[in-house]
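pasting input
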Amino acid sequence: MSHQKPPTDPSVQPSRRPDAAEWRREIELPSERGASRLITEDLLEQLGVHGWSPSDIFAIHLAAEEAIVNAIVHGNKLDPGKVVRVACVVSPTLARIEVTDEGPGFDPGSVPDCRLEDRLDAPNGRGVMLMRTFMTRIEYNARGNRVLMEKQRSPAEG
Amino acid sequence: MATHRRIDVSKLGDVTIVRFLDKKILDEAGILELGTELFGLVELENRKSLLLNFAGVEFLSSAALGKLITLDRKVKSNKGRMKMSNIRPEILEVFQITKLNKIFDIRKEEAEAVSAFE
């Protein structure tokens, strides 16, 4: 018994994954207001653990929040019988977030540009635009009920 | 005077200074409540000079932006004026990306914003 292993630290993941420095999480969220925090709190923590800068973390947080809220409110229309699936990957250089709802989908090209003069004071329609600006890559599936967003880590300042 | 849960309201001369009690303005129920409290300042209390001081606010979502836009409309239609100050760089970038810096009067510090009402 003298060679008994120390207790396994639950935070240490098994090393059989291809990249041990990568954090992955898949979760189903209920279609309720405020449900995004069930994943964003861990996501923010992991971005910090992986050394992302505060401004990149802000950008990813905003994009994730907008995508999840859109899925819950506009996609699933707060239907308690539907869920939003979120899959996240965080490595030191890449953050990827995929958000899928059970709604009919939408055409992201149909969202008017909120920066046009006559739409500047419209209260809605900024979420998708912020997602596009803050992330390196954003793609919708053909149906328009799934969005994949990626951000490459910004080069260090200076 | 109304009780507020999302904002702190004070007066400096004729200027009503609003500070936000949440560091992160993203919870939808909270944003609804925030909107009600902000709109009440204009619609119920008829305050004409509003300064929103964002000191301490670390994050806000597009739903919160929507409330600020609606508030700005209400202030203008009530023949009042609204200014903002103490916005951290990341949030300022959100205003710039969405070109809301064109419709909002944004100042660096509270004192500068207050004197801009004169």
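fyi Residues 28-43 of chain B form the longest helix (16 residues).
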